[in-house]
Specification:
This is UDP-N-acetylmuramoylalanine--D-glutamate ligase. Helices cover 35% and strands 23% of the residues. By secondary structure, the chain is α/β, with parallel strands linked by helices. The strands form three sheets. The protein has a nine-stranded mixed beta sheet with strand order 7-8-6-9-10-11-12-13-14, with helices on one face. Strands 15-16-20-17-18-19 form a six-stranded mixed beta sheet, with helices on both faces.
Length: 445
């Protein structure tokens, strides 16, 4: 029998991981990237004798595929993708492809914000007692881990773009942290399309599977009322008591599953802020489902210090605290950041706008922000929204310049916060690059 031809569009982490797994499972594999492939990935492809091309897509080598795995960064509207669809070639995401080759218990986490923190925290708790991998949008590719590690459990951080290309993918435990308008540029500026996309995480679940979600999020609650899912529901809430699921009472998180309850104090949580109580609830619910001991969950919550580029304290210089929240790539993430500021703040904001509505930030800006530094190629929308609210609003095109200006504007006791509310691709490689440049500029002051 002829080998099945697997074509992979995009030679990044997920693409190369899929190529390795595909080859090991007997596919004829071809990797094609419209841009340059990073040296480290090229070396892997060459070492494993996998055919590849860069800076072009050779149609004759792609349209004859039996199966295509496309990188989550490639939108549907790309002509090549449309052609493949017209020819009826199945297109899947890495998580769809890889999940077929594992019997592991999968925990899938999606949401507009909090998914990296929740995934990292869930993994941090589970790994104390279980063998568990962390993959998806984070760390090493899922496909590669299945090939090399073959863990019995995986925590997957999953973006809406990855969910757009699933067919049968089904996590045993799914989490939706929250849904706020994000990436609308990829969903024809229709919020509905984006919500539908997020809920695909539960579309193949049965009664034997679990959906953990924020019961305080009106978008999620409303959607579930109109589009019931098969999954067993485990809501978490700061305000409502849930018979099944998690809620907050007298500074305690109480989690109940099938009449079996555990409780934990929130006083000793290493992460601050209301949104982190929610992240802790979601992660602890997973741990409780997978029978992790209460003591282990408590200790893990107390010693988990968060992820890089998410409200990360960098340095204090002349009694000014510099905070890196580069991971805030949408308005809602920046909302949490500004909400948690307890001192006058010089705010560095801007980048590639994804159809942002800044209105929900206005009260915080009026109350806490003393100066705004716009860091983007096009800052017009920021200027229109905020120039009447602060005395000082300055445009800049480089991180080092932005940090130097912030240093001049900030006084003893102030915060300097990088929380861009936008994507980073106009001036930086990605949000990590933006965060690292910020930290470097602060250290060079």
């Amino acid at each position: 029998m002829a080998k099945q031809r697997l074509v992979i569009l995009g030679g990044g982490e997920s693409g190369v991981g899929t190529a390795l797994l595909g080859k090991a499972k007997g596919f004829e594999v071809f990797v094609s990237d419209k841009n340059k492939i990073k040296e480290k990935y090229k070396d892997v492809l060459i070492h494993h004798e996998i055919e590849w091309e860069e800076e072009t897509h050779t149609e004759s080598k792609i349209l004859n595929a039996n199966l295509v795995m496309k990188s989550p960064g490639i939108p549907e509207r790309v002509p090549l993708v449309k052609q493949l669809r017209e020819q009826g070639v199945p297109i899947v995401s890495e998580i769809e492809f890889a999940a077929k080759f594992t019997q592991a218990t999968l925990v899938g986490i999606t949401g507009s914000n909090g998914k990296t923190t929740t995934a990292s925290l869930t993994h941090h708790i589970l790994k104390q007692e279980l063998e568990v991998g962390l993959a998806g949008n984070i760390g090493d590719s899922f496909a590669k881990q299945i090939l090399e590690k073959n863990y019995p459990n995986y925590v997957l951080e999953i973006s809406s773009f990855q969910l757009d290309d699933i067919v049968g993918f089904k996590p045993h435990i799914a989490i939706i942290t929250n849904i706020t308008p994000d990436h609308l540029d990829r969903y024809n500026y229709e919020f509905e399309n984006y919500i539908t996309s997020k809920f695909r995480i539960a579309e193949n679940q049965t009664k034997a599977d679990y959906l953990i979600f924020d019961a305080d999020d009106p978008v999620i609650v409303d959607w579930l009322e109109k589009h019931p899912v098969q999954s067993t529901l485990l809501p978490f809430s700061l305000v409502k008591k849930n018979k099944n699921g998690a809620y907050l009472e007298n500074d305690k998180i109480i989690i109940t599953i099938d009449n079996n309850s555990i409780d934990m104090s929130t006083k000793d949580l290493a992460l601050e802020g209301k949104h982190n109580i929610k992240n802790a609830m979601a992660a602890s619910t997973v741990a409780h489902l997978l029978r992790i001991r209460k003591q282990t969950i408590r200790e893990s919550l107390e010693n988990f210090h968060g992820v890089e580029h998410r409200l990360e304290n960098v340095l204090k210089i002349n009694k000014v605290q510099y905070i890196n929240d580069s991971k805030a790539t949408n308005v809602n993430a920046t909302y949490y950041a500004l909400e948690s500021m307890d001192a006058p703040t010089v705010w560095i904001v801007g980048g590639q706008d994804k159809g942002n509505n800044y209105q929900e930030l206005f009260p915080f800006v009026n109350e806490k922000v003393k100066a705004i530094i716009c860091l983007g190629v096009d800052n017009q929308k920021l200027m229109e929204n905020f120039s009447s609210m602060v005395d000082v609003i300055i445009e800049t095109q480089s991180m080092s310049e932005a940090v130097k200006i912030a240093y001049k504007l900030a006084e003893s006791g102030d915060n300097v916060l990088l929380s861009p509310a936008c994507a980073s691709f106009d001036l930086f490689e990605n949000y990590e690059d933006r965060g690292r440049q910020f930290k470097e500029a602060v250290r060079n002051l």
